[in-house]
Amino acid sequence: MALDIFLKADTWLALLTLCFLEIVLGIDNIIFISIVSNKLPEEQRRQARNTGLFLAMFVRIGFLLAITWIIGFKQPLFSVSDILPNALIQFLGFHGDHMFSGRDLILGFGGLFLIAKSTMEINHEMEGEGDHEKGGKKSKVPTIAGTIVQIIILDIIFSFDSILTAVGVVDKDKVIIMILAVIVSIGVMMFFSGAISKFIQQHPSMEVLALGFLILIGFMLFLEALEVVVPKGYIYFAVAFSLLIEFFNIRVLKKRKADPVKLHKPFNNEDIAQAVGQAEEPVYSNDPSYPIGKFEGRDSYSDVEVKPLIARIERLPAKIEAAVNDLSDEELDTAYREGGWTLRQVVHHLADSHMNAYIRMKWMLTENNTVIKAYDQNLWAQTPDASFPVTDSINLLYSLHSKWTNLMKEVKPEELEKEFIHPETHKHVSLGKLIATYAWHGDHHLAHINALKKRMGW
To answer: 128 in the Ramachandran plot: left (φ > 0), alpha (ψ -120 to 50) or beta?
Structure first.
């Protein structure tokens, strides 16, 4: 009987070895699946990961059942000289007699796919939300079906390597052992993918590092397709060393954030007022675009941390009015930097932007993981009302900020973790981070006005 093989010790040893190798080979798969699924609303991520992996398991089993066909992929299909002229081969330094097999093509295109996909993901990560809405073509909001398809395609790429590993470890007539190893490895991926996904979501630097690893793995697959042997020990050492450094970095950052919280007494209203009242005259940088620096925020904020941020938003209308009150129409129509908006446009933009922020906050409080609507802030700054008197927007800011900040003060601590999804960057932004962003945003544009006045001597 076929099941008699499980009475032999070497069968169990082969199964344990293959399970271990399949799990190790699946680590990069888990990382990419976690990154892809994190773009979905939180309640859909687990379903997408598990469904994609479950379907991918049958893809792997199908490949194993067709194992003789997979092995046949190693047979040469064509050579470099068959597709390129000799002059070009000599110019590029290729070997004209190098033969390409089906395996080489799959590994090569799979490696290029990983490089391209990871590079695009890093580009999205580096762009961030920014302080302005972006115009232009809007990217599609990820769907659960599209995410599952990506997971299956990705697993097909990674499964080829794991199947070849299985063939090398176990005789091809013992397919049942290979199938069991695949089922075990997929089960491990399902179990740990949620924890890895959550960890990457909480530590964006790990996402960039993981994407860097995938670019490295993609490049290694591409070299392997060209029959350039790169010892995998070097890759594993680089990955392990980078992870070790990053874990130390996360630990240091946590310690730095933890130290200032050791207060001798609770943070009361007088403390908040005193903190807000400090640094009334900030030191501006030489960068006219970001006179107080770019926004540097965190994914989450505590109830204590948002109180001074709310106070900054509450005080902004009075500060804006004081900054532009004595300016003439000619001065208001002066750009704060070359190619930038006029001061009049800046004031009107604040009203537009903060109205959108208020609506987004209402969405966050009444819906779960809502996908917001972006707007082209440059086009909004060119509509006819952008040339109206600034008092229109200042009066609006007084009313808006009064209602907005009073609502913020009623937000429960647990509600600060509620999120919206940006349709362009696909980032999940918490309510606490939204408050921090717009506290900075108001001071950012106030600094544009005051920095220009200082430079012009107004």
So the answer is: left
